[in-house]
Amino acid sequence: xxxxxxxxxxxxxxxxARCRNLPPGEFFPSDGVGVEVARRICAECPVKGACLEYALxxxxxxxxxxxxxxxxxxxxxxxxxxxxxxxxxx
Length: 90
Hints:
Mean pLDDT: 87
Strand content: under 5%
Order of helices and strands: HHH
Shape: globular
Low-confidence stretches: none
Largest sheet: none
Radius of gyration: 13 Å
Structural class: mainly alpha
Number of domains: 1
């Protein structure tokens, strides 16, 4: 995993995230039910796309980012590497 440079840890878009004032544990669930709860929060977030791209760029392995689980982000990255035309969920 690529480490996140300190100047990249806080992005402007993060200030507008719906999750900003929620417990971080909500977005690092241990089961599928927790993933669905996090996705519902992300679903109406105005910075969902930026959040997902951040997680993809920095290869963040854990948690729900931009409404996508770890597994979904791995699939997105795999599709991008192979040039698949399947769109990224927004």
